[in-house]
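Per reviewer request, we include the raw input and output of the structure prediction for the construct analysed in the revised manuscript.
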Amino acid sequence: MELHLIIHGQKDLAGQLYRQLREAIDTGRLAPGTRLPPSRLLAEQLGISRKTISDTYAQLTYEGVLVGKIGSGTFVNTRAARPDRRREGVRFASQDNIERWANLNTRLSHPGNEGTARADFIGGASTQLQFPQEEWRRCVNHAMRQMSGHRGHYSRPEGITPLRDGIARHIAYARGVNCTLDDVLVCNGAQQALDLLARVMLRPGDRVAMEDPGYTPARLLFQTLGAEVASVPVDAEGIRVDLIPDGTRMIYTTPSHQFPLGMPMSAARREALLARALELGALVIEDDYDSEFRYEGRPTDALQSLDRHGVVAYIGTFSKVLLPELRLGYLIPPPNLLPALVRARQISDWHSSTLPQWALSKFIAEGYLLKHIRRCHGIYAGRRERILARLEGDLAPWLETVPSVAGFHLTALCRTPVRVPLLAELARKVDVGLYGLASFYDHVPPREGLILGFGAIDTLDIDPALDKVRDLLQQLG
């Protein structure tokens, strides 16, 4: 790639070259560590003498802006001072909207590796140690071979056929979802599936009903698109269908493992929800985010499997089963919605990256996905049992468990008044990550409690970490 420099005329060649290079470095267009073209090559590109190039490089090297490395070339000095590019910008006519987005409270943002504690009970995260690196590497190599046979065209918005077929077979087997590959839309995670559904289904002012407490990013998404979000309480059987208001256009729910409390929706409540949606003409969004992992009782099929009228859109993700960094999920909408969603996807980002799609399709076809789920299920079951034993043992005076049979987080409600934010702050100081429940409530009066994720924490760290939590609870009285 050529360095973008423009020389005008035949006067002050060295000055023109110096000023353009210096400006490119000072503004950050040439980043620290960037290798500059050899003087001979740059001279040919610009049509000026090699000596002019060499003299300019020498002057910038003297000023400490460039550095020469014998046998390697000339580089932008990594120690060169970078200018502060933050300037007071113009106030746009849409400034109010800009500030509304900038000030969104994204309470479920995951910290980077540097922000995690040694023993972290963060929810929705899996451990890197369980990821099948060798199997995935073989699948990526397969993906590279597949892509080498294509001509560099854009792919299909709904996803490559082998992956859609693999997803359809997997969720029919594991979750009882009624679909074929023609029903599958591959997305960049579950959040994009929500975004597409909201863009196609809603106009500003339309009403969306969702569980309270519930998944905060979904609520924020609906609100930023101009929808009115009706917060509907939940009880031991799931969302209170009788409280879903008239005029609702869309209903968001997590029936298999209510987020964040964890209880499954009862069979009677599922039937009532489908009947209410049909009465309203509303779409039900079933977010089945982590139900591949089930520990007690008879497996419960997805709500979508009960749908006889085409009112349920089923959303799944590989972020919980594999890794969040893959950014791959899927949407199974009612058939009459799919064409509109495909068009919306096409004008949004066209399609997901095909390399991980090919790799994941091979991963599923070779049986690696089911093998990985079975392996993780055993590990998560052991961690879950350990946390439950402590919650029912020495932590019982302060915390009580919400019954849950799936996923990889547990919710514990406070039996006695506990200052959970203070508890979490003190726990962080002893390298334990704790996360409160109250922030996931909207209009319903919040219950204090903890979300205890066991996907990312090592099994051997659970008891020492909970020992520290117990000691802190004792100190807090």
